[in-house]
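Figure 3 (text version): structure tokens given as input.
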């Protein structure tokens, strides 16, 4: 049976949702970030605070149902999402902590929850001087298109022998565009130009990607699934390439647009003293949050290592970068060192603290998902004298 919890103008569903969690400790639910994008969580997800008992509306910590929660057994959630065209990603913390179960993890690789794919190109059949070309549309052919992929899914382009490396990325535009010459074709839009990306040896050494199906010997094919963790890791590996990862904005902003950004998003745009107060409050809130979740927390911000908090729980370790915002926006300044850390550290996690000075509300983004969640806007450049 499906249950939905969502705040309305004159009432909160927070306590009802918390009651459902307490009664369904092995349950699953979706959090709707938009009408077409959602995350799958376990009822005991660390993002929502420790318990039971769980915090209530009268505790003043905010409402968990400001974003719609859809609760049901996994098959019903799949059917619900598919009927409404909702793309679902897995919460990596719940996956890591074993809250989703083997069936739900398997559905990432074979079913509706997958949104990362490898598409293979053969050098002898393709002219790599013509693609990938950022912003251009392309038509690709396959004998067996996946039944579960959706428009907007991320596609990593793999060049076959002798290159055997990632040469770019794209996103799916038309999953089932047509059929001709005894093959199905699908439409994509390239999100990068040609790159000399990670090689087969690089990926086989990576603890997350070495088990990916496209790296294994066996029947040839065009389209191969990646798990949520593998897709996020691939985004990290591609971030250092000069064009920026998916979501990078290279178009200069007008002054009015920059002013609007400063008005709408918080971290780093106030006075120096305001920023220090927000930063201290955010670090305090983040530290309390992770300690409540059973982590041992050590501040390492003075070490200038690209993150603020070193968190350990048993054999698990997370590197937490904390960003505080005075209001309810979801934007901040990321230094070059922090950006590089996010791109290379598979233990990296971003913790954004909204309303840091009044009612701290925590949002977390794991690893490579930062490059899908955010657009990166260049606000400053370093100028150096030319040589010669």
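Below: residues designed for each position.
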């Amino acid at each position: 049976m499906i249950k939905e919890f969502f705040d309305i103008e004159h009432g909160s569903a927070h306590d009802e949702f918390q009651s459902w969690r307490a009664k369904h400790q092995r349950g699953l639910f979706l959090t709707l970030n938009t009408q077409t994008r959602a995350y799958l969580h376990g009822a005991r997800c660390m993002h929502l605070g420790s318990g039971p008992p769980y915090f209530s509306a009268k505790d003043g910590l905010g409402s968990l149902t400001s974003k719609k929660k859809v609760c049901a057994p996994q098959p019903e959630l799949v059917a619900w999402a598919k009927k409404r065209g909702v793309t679902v990603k897995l919460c990596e913390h719940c996956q890591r902590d074993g809250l989703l179960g083997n069936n739900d993890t398997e559905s990432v690789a074979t079913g509706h929850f997958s949104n990362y794919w490898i598409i293979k190109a053969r050098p002898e059949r393709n002219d790599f001087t013509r693609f990938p070309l950022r912003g251009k549309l392309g038509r690709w052919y396959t004998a067996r298109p996946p039944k579960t992929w959706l428009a907007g899914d991320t596609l990593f382009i793999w060049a076959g022998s002798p290159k055997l490396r990632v040469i770019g990325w794209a996103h799916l535009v038309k999953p089932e565009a047509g059929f001709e010459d005894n093959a199905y074709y699908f439409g994509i839009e390239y999100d990068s130009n040609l790159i000399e990306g990670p090689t087969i040896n690089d990926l086989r050494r990576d603890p997350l990607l070495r088990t990916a199906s496209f790296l294994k010997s066996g029947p040839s094919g065009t389209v191969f699934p990646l798990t949520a963790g593998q897709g996020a890791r691939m985004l990290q590996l591609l971030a250092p390439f000069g064009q920026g990862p998916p979501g990078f904005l290279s178009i200069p902003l007008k002054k009015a647009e920059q002013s609007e950004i400063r008005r709408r998003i918080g971290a780093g745009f106030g006075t120096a003293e305001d920023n220090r107060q927000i930063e201290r409050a955010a670090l305090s809130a983040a530290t309390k949050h992770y300690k409540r979740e059973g982590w041992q927390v050590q501040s390492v911000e003075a070490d200038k290592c690209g993150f603020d908090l070193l968190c350990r729980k048993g054999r698990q370790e997370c590197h937490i970068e904390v960003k505080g915002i005075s209001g309810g926006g979801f934007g901040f300044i990321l230094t070059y060192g922090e950006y590089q850390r996010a791109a290379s550290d598979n233990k990296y996690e971003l913790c954004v603290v909204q309303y840091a000075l009044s009612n701290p509300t925590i949002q977390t983004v794991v690893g490579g998902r930062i490059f899908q969640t955010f657009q990166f806007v260049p606000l400053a450049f370093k100028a150096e004298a030319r040589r010669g």
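The first helix runs from residue 14 to 23.
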